[in-house]
Amino acid sequence: MNSAIENATCANVSRRSFLKGAAAAAVGIAAVDGGFEFVYPENAFADENAPEVTKHTYCDMCNHTPKCGITATVKEDKIVRVVSRANYPNDPLCAKGLSSLQELYDPHRLLHPMKRTKPKGQGDAGWEQITWDEAYDTIVAALNKVKDEMGPEGVFFYCGDPKEPRGAVNRLANLFGSPTYGNESSTCAYAALIGTGLVFGAQTMGANPTDNSKSCLIWSLNPAWSLPNRFGKLMNAKEKGCKFIIVDPRVTPTVTGLADIHLQLRPGTDGALALGIAHVMLRDGYFDEEFCQNWTHGFDEFKEYVQEFTPEKVAEITWVPAEKIEAAAKLWGEETPGTFITSASPQVHHTNAGNNMRAISSLVALAGNVDVAGGLQIDPGLPFDLFAATPAFNREDIYDAQLATKRYDLEDFPVWTKFVKQMQTNRFPEYVDEGKIKAMVMFGGNAMMWPQSHLYQEAIGKLDFACAADYYIRPWTHDYVDIILPAAMCYERMAPFAVFGRKIYLREPVIEPRGEAREDWQVAMELGSRLGYAEECFNGSVEEALAEVLRTTELGVTMQDLRDNPDGYAVPGGAPYEPKKYETGKIRKDGQPGFNTPSGKIELVSEVMKECGFEGLPLYNEPVYSPISTPDLAKDYPLILNTGSRVPMYSHSKLRDCPWLNQFMPEPIVRLHPKTAAERGLEDGEQVRVFNQLGEIEVKLEVTNLVLPGVVDIFHGWEKANVNKLTAREFDHVTGYPPFKSGLCQVERA
Ligand SMILES: Nc1nc2c(c(=O)[nH]1)N[C@H]1C(S)=C(S)[C@@H](COP(=O)(O)OP(=O)(O)OC[C@H]3O[C@@H](n4cnc5c(=O)[nH]c(N)nc54)[C@H](O)[C@@H]3O)O[C@H]1N2
Ligand SMILES: Nc1nc2c(c(=O)[nH]1)N[C@H]1C(S)=C(S)[C@@H](COP(=O)(O)OP(=O)(O)OC[C@H]3O[C@@H](n4cnc5c(=O)[nH]c(N)nc54)[C@H](O)[C@@H]3O)O[C@H]1N2
Ligand code: SF4
Ligand SMILES: [Mo]
């Protein structure tokens, strides 16, 4: 392993104690470390002399699509050891992946369907074990009742951050006839995809540098902690000479490992910073004039607008020194081709999300970095996303013909509805209060992820019926549902496929599910069958559902092809990347030259925005609460509240009970710069109150140079200190996103 990656990945991880734990797992004994005692339940022990079998799967500990490969050693249907899978596109396993056995064999895991016997939200649901049959019968009766009384749209189908159930749940919602399907991407990736979709006519979060890339603009991503397998690839590009500009308020291991220029901005001022860089590029000729004149829409208007964003003015807004803005514009404009990478979330966790993302995307066009080798390659790629299944499998035909006009968010978020065939979920409490939603089917979600999250918790409680599938009973959310179903984990399930470019991997279960757990796809398909769609839901068969996913790709790939190629089946065909396809008509759906936007060009001024009643330019607006937009509020709450930047050892609300991971951050902390702490007479390690006009939490203080002076950095998802008590429910009009990362607050000794 590249030692730089190892160091960065494990930056917050005490290697000695972690490895001690890992060794304990290998022999299947209890791990006792740093005050934590973890005892595997009986069924984690195998006969020492039993033969060993090696099997492969991929990890889902960060619920995400890095899909790191795992090789598991199995004895008597018990996993005794896991390591990174060799010759697999994504490796190595991070601390979470290596700890996944503790989640799998956790004695507190939910292993049977349960129903509540006591009233909601009172701390004790009186959970009582029931059979799958009883669970399904109850759910089917409740959903059909809502369907009969008010129509299928009254049932809200929801997937949280776990991405794996999505294809099956989407299909189920469409078959049931409900456009009220949504997922956690209402606060995650879609705003970035909408922003880039508006500009490029292609939804993208950028691409890693290739050997042709002279530069790379990373706009708010910290893969050293959030996507460790990707960080290794970026380190390799750095070694080959690619120059990096990184826009991040914090000094992360990604910044120290990669950045040639680090722009440490005030959170939420991303749009102003991008317009300032554009100003310098256009002023000093660091742009591709021919490309801009021929292939961008609204160039002159955009050029006129950025006149006011002088480096000096932008420095005042963003806190980034003017010289650095100048230097970044020069590097980005001169070191071409260059690629750009943006995150799913931090740059859009603001009330100006959509326009921030459009302004950032404009920089790629100005530099002429679109659809060139080493730049942002706009590639039609394979006609499917096997991870979230395919449009045909998801039954978008039903959605388009019958459901699209019945969705509840049409008036709230018109731009969103043009791009996303799923509901923007952030106004869920209002839809419940307005009587539009009466029941909820939840796969892997936590109400704590929303801003002012108690309102979402209460909204679930107000429903006639709610059920959830999860690995655990998480009281914060599940105290408000009626039935809870045990979900099988990555070692126990088959769906979905892993796809890397043209290579597809089938995942065979490594072990039988513990207890009565069932995989999400099976649950969705069994529920669908009982709701009257047995044929469409393959009578609950995951094998057949997956075969149908393959069939809908129309690529001629079969399950047998995948079984015959356990090291990945390469879909035949495909050609090397072809640059400048916009000139030859290979990007647009109608075969004409140009891009898939209304004007056929890269839209610096957006026609879709205008059609939806907004300004066409990516106007910069201050975050709704900020020292500039609400100076009076800022007198009481002078610090910028930046919540949810990822930590290496946890995924959102998960893994707090995993002993090997919990030891690295046993309790919620707030991070402050030494200067900010000193101004308040605060010292490292003491308990502090973090509060604003919306709420208050108590956490332990960590004083660190990682954060920018004047900014407060707190991770989300802690039940005992839920920072979403302090985040506001003003939503960006374009994307519906909340200001998770640009609130205001104050910190005092507790
Ligand atoms: N303040 C603040 N809030 C944020 C963010 C932030 O940065 N700041 N980030 C936002 C973002 S980007 C996201 S993605 C969301 C994430 O928020 P959530 O979607 O709530 O994610 P988790 O906390 O991981 O909750 C997932 C639940 O699913 C369960 N689970 C995990 N895997 C599976 C599975 O495969 N099947 C089933 N059935 N259950 C499973 C877990 O046990 C857990 O209870 O949070 C958002 N909220
Ligand atoms: N370990 C771990 N990995 C994860 C997750 C997890 O919970 N834990 N969650 C997964 C999910 S759902 C997601 S969405 C991704 C997110 O992946 P990342 O975006 O990489 O994660 P973050 O740490 O939220 O944000 C990256 C950087 O953005 C900076 N940032 C904060 N505010 C701003 C801002 O206003 N502007 C700019 N330009 N930068 C800002 C932060 O300082 C941080 O260093 O991570 C995924 N990977
Ligand atoms: S980054 Fe870590 S948690 Fe995420 S898939 Fe890879 S090993 Fe698992
Ligand atoms: Mo996310």
TrEMBL record:
<dbReference type="InterPro" id="IPR006656">
    <property type="entry name" value="Mopterin_OxRdtase"/>
</dbReference>
<dbReference type="Pfam" id="PF00384">
    <property type="entry name" value="Molybdopterin"/>
</dbReference>
<dbReference type="GO" id="GO:0016491">
    <property type="term" value="F:oxidoreductase activity"/>
</dbReference>
<keyword id="KW-0560">Oxidoreductase</keyword>
<keyword id="KW-0732">Signal</keyword>
<protein>
    <submittedName>
        <fullName>Molybdopterin oxidoreductase</fullName>
    </submittedName>
</protein>
<dbReference type="InterPro" id="IPR019546">
    <property type="entry name" value="TAT_signal_bac_arc"/>
</dbReference>
<dbReference type="GO" id="GO:0046872">
    <property type="term" value="F:metal ion binding"/>
</dbReference>
<keyword id="KW-0479">Metal-binding</keyword>
<dbReference type="GO" id="GO:0043546">
    <property type="term" value="F:molybdopterin cofactor binding"/>
</dbReference>
<dbReference type="InterPro" id="IPR006311">
    <property type="entry name" value="TAT_signal"/>
</dbReference>
<dbReference type="InterPro" id="IPR006963">
    <property type="entry name" value="Mopterin_OxRdtase_4Fe-4S_dom"/>
</dbReference>
<keyword id="KW-0411">Iron-sulfur</keyword>
<comment type="similarity">
    <text>Belongs to the prokaryotic molybdopterin-containing oxidoreductase family.</text>
</comment>
<dbReference type="InterPro" id="IPR006657">
    <property type="entry name" value="MoPterin_dinucl-bd_dom"/>
</dbReference>
<dbReference type="InterPro" id="IPR050612">
    <property type="entry name" value="Prok_Mopterin_Oxidored"/>
</dbReference>
<dbReference type="GO" id="GO:0051536">
    <property type="term" value="F:iron-sulfur cluster binding"/>
</dbReference>
<keyword id="KW-0408">Iron</keyword>
<dbReference type="Pfam" id="PF04879">
    <property type="entry name" value="Molybdop_Fe4S4"/>
</dbReference>
<dbReference type="Pfam" id="PF01568">
    <property type="entry name" value="Molydop_binding"/>
</dbReference>
<feature type="domain" description="4Fe-4S Mo/W bis-MGD-type">
    <location>
        <begin position="52"/>
        <end position="106"/>
    </location>
</feature>
<dbReference type="InterPro" id="IPR009010">
    <property type="entry name" value="Asp_de-COase-like_dom_sf"/>
</dbReference>
